[in-house]
Every structure is written in structure tokens, then in C-alpha cells.
Write a structure and sequence with these properties.
Layout lengths: L7 H7 L10 E2 L16 E4 L7 H10 L3 E4 L3 H6 L11 E4 L5 H4 L20 H7 L1 H12 L5 E4 L6 H12 L4 H9 L1 H4 L19 H13 L18 H12 L2 H7 L7 H9 L5
Parallel strand pairs: 2-5, 3-4, 3-5
Antiparallel strand pairs: 1-2
Helix pairs in contact: 5-11, 7-8, 11-12
Length: about 280
């Protein structure tokens, strides 16, 4: 079934536009369990943050960001490091997995205009597994009240999209709304703030991800790194493949949360108490 198009008004309301950010968005306002809205100013999703400047850091301090969860591999962090100048009390969770699982094969099709991010179409099932330890740490922190949080990857769309999808699903947000939020990434990304395109080649001999990007650009030009449409040939949001993988293996998101994210029986209720507005 084709995904519902994202609402432009929703994008304007939740897109945090700062000089050095890409795809920074507030997950607040969505209707969750019992019609209660997700709290504003607590849960943020984003792309990479290597180019933050004075105005961006001032915003981070004003929001009192407590937790930053980086879903990228170490190789990606080397290419686009976050040089944190936000609140001193902020804690950082760093994912740890082999970047070759994502970038180690020639995923980019040899066709004009092929996008680097085409590779992600087949990887959502993999993300469900390789990111489970990081997701478990993220949800444990959220259950301890470590918020506001920013969780991000490179583009803030695929790995971040799965994290946001899981979080919103456990908060009781319906899937159509989750997919619509996911699709906002296409219009909210600013690639130049995610990566130094011209500087990547300098790392190509030693960094697998840099070599992947360099080869993709050499084969298909700069169109290879333009933001893609996040739907498959049938118009279905790619995020659905992640949910399908979870439900095929575990039966439900709740069972995945229990078995892979180490969330006990009462955790979902506690998560909702923390991040949904109280009953009117």
C-alpha cells in the first residue's frame, strides 16, 4: 500500500531549522496511546552534526539536551565527527558495529543518477539486528528519564527512521503517522551539513565508508549522494520493511522490545508516562 504523503504543515511545525543542522525534527505532537500527544521538546531525531556552529550550540544548551545517541559506525564518525559543545551534562551513546555490514559491498547500482542511499532499501532487516544493542541502551536511558534526547545517524532517515519508528510505535502512534513522519526526511535534509563532500576523498585509502562514497561519486556523479525518495517501487515506505522483519521474526514490536531491547513488562507503560502528555 502506498505510503501517505507527509503533511507540509507538520514538517514546518516540527522541523528545527538551524544553520548547521540537517533533518533535525521534534517528534512531539503526534497522537499516541489513548489519544495522548507525544510531548514536545523531549524527543528529537536528526542527521549527522559535524558542522554545528555558535547558533546551533546555543540551541542545544537552551534545550538542555541530556542525551545524544549516535547510530553511525566508527568509520562514519571519523568522516563527520560531532565535536560536542552543548551542555556539559550531556551523555553520549555510540553504536559499535562493523561498517562493512552496510558499506562493504557494491550496493550502488551502475546506472546514471543512482543514489548512495539506494543501498538502504535492502538493509532495514539488518538494522533491526545490528542496532539492537544500541537501541536497548537508548531505551534504557529514556526509561531513566534521560531527556531531551537527540538520536541520529548520517542522514537521519534510515537508522534514525527505524529508531523513531520503534519509539513512536511503543508510544502508541499509528503506523500511517509513523510512515508520514519518516518521509519528511526527504524535504528536511541538508546534505552539505552532514558531510564534507570534497574532503571525503582524503580518507578513501583508510576508511571504508569514504571509499564507498568516493567510488559512488566517481561512477555516477554528485547525483549519487542526493537525498532519495524513501519508498520502494510500489510506493511503500522503506521503513515498513523494518517493521515487517521485526514482525516476521518476533511477532510484534512489543516482543522485539522485550527480547532484544531488554524492556520488561511494565516498560512500555513507563515510557508512555514519561513521553506522552497527561490525560486532559
Amino acid at each position: 500500500m502506498p505510503a501517505r504523503s507527509p503533511d507540509a504543515a507538520s514538517a514546518r511545525q516540527r522541523h528545527v531549522v538551524l544553520p548547521g543542522t540537517s533533518n533535525l525534527r521534534d517528534l512531539g505532537g503526534y497522537a499516541g496511546a489513548g489519544g495522548r500527544k507525544v510531548r514536545w521538546g523531549r524527543l528529537y531525531r536528526s542527521g549527522a552534526m559535524p558542522k554545528l556552529g555558535a547558533a546551533d550550540w546555543a540551541w542545544m544548551r537552551a534545550q538542555r539536551i541530556a542525551l545524544v545517541c549516535d547510530l553511525r559506525s566508527a568509520a562514519e564518525r571519523e568522516l563527520a565527527p560531532t565535536r560536542w559543545q552543548g551542555p556539559d551534562h550531556s551523555r553520549h551513546i555510540l553504536a559499535d558495529y562493523d561498517p562493512a555490514l552496510i558499506y562493504g559491498r557494491p550496493f550502488v547500482p551502475a546506472r546514471p543518477g543512482a543514489a548512495v542511499n539506494d543501498l538502504h532499501q535492502g538493509l532495514y532487516g539488518l538494522f533491526v539486528e545490528i542496532l539492537a544493542p544500541t537501541f536497548a541502551e537508548l531505551f534504557a536511558a529514556l526509561l531513566d528519564g534521560e531527556a531531551p534526547v537527540i538520536f541520529h545517524c548520517s542522514a537521519g532517515q534510515d537508522r534514525t527512521g527505524l529508531a523513531a519508528g520503534l519509539l513512536l510505535d511503543l508510544l502508541g502512534v499509528d503506523r500511517d503517522t509513523i510512515y508520514a513522519d519518516y518521509l519528511l526526511s526527504t524535504e528536511c535534509r541538508r546534505f552539505d551539513n552532514e558531510l564534507d563532500r570534497l574532503g571525503v576523498a582524503a580518507f578513501a585509502e583508510t576508511n571504508l565508508v569514504a571509499r564507498f562514497y568516493t567510488d559512488a561519486i566517481r561512477r555516477n556523479g554528485m547525483d549519487a549522494i542526493k537525498p532519495p525518495k524513501l519508498v520502494d517501487a510500489e510506493g511503500t515506505a522503506l521503513l515498513k520493511h523494518g517493521f515487517d522483519a521485526i514482525e516476521a521474526q518476533f511477532g510484534s514490536v512489543e516482543r522485539y522490545a522485550e527480547r532484544r531491547l531488554k524492556m520488561d513488562a511494565g516498560a512500555i507503560g513507563r515510557l508512555r508516562a514519561l513521553y506522552l502528555e497527561p490525560d486532559a
